[in-house]
Design a protein that fits this description.
The chain is mainly β and about 475 residues long. It has a single domain, classed as YVTN repeat-like/Quinoprotein amine dehydrogenase (Methylamine Dehydrogenase, Chain H, 7 Propeller). Helices cover about 5% and strands about 40% of the residues. The chain contains three helices and 31 strands. The strands form eight sheets. Strands 13, 14, 15, 16, 17 and 20 form a six-stranded antiparallel beta sheet that branches. Strand 15 and strand 16 form a beta hairpin. The radius of gyration is 21 Å and the shape is globular.
Amino acid sequence: MRRRSVLTTAVLATAALAAPGTARAAAPGPSVTRTGTTLLDDRAIYFVSYDGLVNNNSFQKNGLLTYRGHQYAAWYTADRNAVVGRRALGASTWQTVRVGHTLRYDDSHNVVSMGVSRTDGRLHLHMDSHSDGFTYVKSVAGLLDDPAGLSWTTSRFGAPQSTLDGLTLTSQFTYPQFVATPEGRLQLSYRAGVSGNGRNALAEYDGARWTALGEWTSATGNYTSEHGSSTARNMYLHGIDYDVRGRLHAFFTWREQNAAVMCSRGGITNHDTGYVYSDDRGRTWRNHAGTVVGTTGGPDRVSVTDAGLVVDPLNPDHSLMNQESQATDSAGRPHAIISYVPGRFGRCTTDYVADRTAHGRAFHLRRTASGTWRKTEIPVPPNSSQRTKLVLDRYDNAYAILPFGRIAGASAASGHTDWKLLFDGGGLDAFGEVVVDETRVAQDGVLSFLYQERSSGTTPSALRVVDFRLPA
């Protein structure tokens, strides 16, 4: 609802500039102006696993967020303590508190994710899980509604739990992603199971208690490539987001369990980009044509054998990345960033890290007003095996935040075809992936992201947040 009001104000303001009988002023194209950088931690934990860092894996939702004029961040310190910080927007310093949990393993999957339940003003944190148990912490009610009146202290947070207030979900938990419903409830998306054999599921908090809504994807079914077959898999989400009209969107890729589907065991078994949506808060899922393909908690779940799921086909031979990025525009149309090694560099990747670093390319995939799907290559090579994040501004210009903090942009006026580099990452010395504040762009027109400086081995390094002003 907040994004709707910002967009409406922007449209009215643009219309007011045009006198009767004159042409309406054109919307501005994409631009970024760096306005400042703040330090979260000069000695954040640093280790590389699965080619990433635990403090800035871009699949976090959210490691950085904005709510009621304050920004919140969560990370692990050099001594492995989970920390959450806040600052008033525009402030140069952060208030930080420890929440009573220490990171168990050197595993970059074990991120801290945050969510806000608007029904009671609580901050929720979910952390430290990779196909096993998890830790959950929530604040007292009203903490985020009155940041000026309530002190930022450890006493404002409850004790760490291994359940959601007594609700046990699964013994194999990974990828927590909080998403707020239009009514202000808080949903938790997660994977039950393991890589190559897992199911996506949802839980929901109504301001009083958590309820398990159930699983909505299937791990079973037969998939056959030109090389071989697989009978088990998991769906990797590029995100899960409500648009301004209340539709829930999810792009995804499939990862097969059986490596026989690939041309080389040095690749990754990810294939195809798919898309589903829900108009009933995640209870029922439909393909892009509107056909029901699954029900959360029911026997019929979204499966690799369902028709109409794939919106960009690709076999498992190109090291397609999982969990990249997605967003929705002011008309509720879905957009995604995907990346892989195009066929022009060879039809078989044999070392997915090396091949993606040398030849991987990012693409902007979106649904047009006519309902068709269009894909455009972003002409800025990632030069990394890692992920790119997507942001849309109030004029629906698109921004790709590439590894190392580089920013490319494309205008809505061009149909998002005029991609160019807007910021080269200079001065950041960022390791690779960044964590974008997905909530802030709509609130004050600022692109804000968290990054960690490069280091080596296990030597701690600085963790920072950088801000860029977007077109007003």
